[in-house]
Amino acid sequence: MVFPLPLRVACSLIAWLSLYAWFCHRYKHRNYEWSCRLVTLTHGILATCLSAYIGFIDGPWPLTHAGSPNTTLQVHVLCLSLGYFLFDLCWCVYFQTEGALMLAHHLVSILGITASLALGESAAEVNAVIFGSEITNPLLQARWFLREMGCYHSLTGDLVDFFFVVLFTGVRIGVGAWLMYCELASPKPRWYIKLGGVIMYAVSWVFMVSICRFARRKSMKKYHAWRSRRSEELFLKTNGHLKNQ
After folding, report:
1. Tens digit of pLDDT for each residue in 32-67?
2. pLDDT classification of 107: cutoffs 50, 70, 90
3. Rounded CA gap, 66 and 125, in Å?
4. Distance between CA 154 and CA 139 in Å, rounded?
5. What is the value of pTM for the model shown?
6. What is the spatial distance between Cα 149 and Cα 181, in angstroms, rounded to a whole number?
């Protein structure tokens, strides 16, 4: 028996809400954002793995089959992610933790997934967008958890930031540009699906500007810290040499 799409999305939403409630019960000593971040991390890992399987193994290939009819597995994954985005959007609005850009990102994601499910097509490229968006999410959440636990200013924190910047630049900006070109060049996708893809890519570039600024600040801070340590070492060596004389 095949359940209607609204029912499947509702079940997904209830599942994410239930997981959030369990995390809140499990981590009573933590704040609500801790539990929400765990839900986000869970969705990020799950969505990345499922969308990667669909795109690279199950098919169809989004770069050559934009606008193709949705497969059963694609529909399942889109319903799963749609339920999550609805949960996270409501959570962010209620607790007012995110800015307009992130809310716009969630809203466009919701509209894009809903349109694909309603049309019964274009899930290949929408799934690819989910993959590109979620592949960096676990690193973003890991960065937040490291900060909360006081472990961010360490080698682990530096590695997380490095791989986040590399993945974001390579996948969301590099591969994202290729996907957007294929989407716009194909005659099959509807114009509003194409528009949604352009908006999502533009949002990625806004995030990229912020990431570049962050990377520059962190690099300069690391450089000045290294220069300071180097100066201290040279001073100590020179001072010791003078004393020996």
Report:
1. 999 999 999 999 999 999 999 999 998 899 988 989
2. very high
3. 6
4. 15
5. 0.87
6. 42
**pLDDT surpasses 80 at 160:** yes
CA pair distance 122, 56, nearest whole angstrom: 16
Rounded to 5 degrees, what are φ and ψ at 176?
-60, -40
- Local structure of 30: helix, strand or coil: coil
Please enumerate in sequence order all residues whose Cβ is within 8 A of that of 168, keeping only pairs 6 or more positions apart, or say none.
136, 204, 207, 208, 211
What does the H/E/C string look like for 143-181?
Answer: HHHHHHCCCCCCHHHHHHHHHHHHHHHHHHHHHHHHHHH
Burial of residue 195 (CB within 10 Å: 0-12, 13-18, 19+) is middle
- Encoded tokens for 122: 């274009």
Identify any residues that bridge with 45 across adjacent strands, giving them in sequence order: none
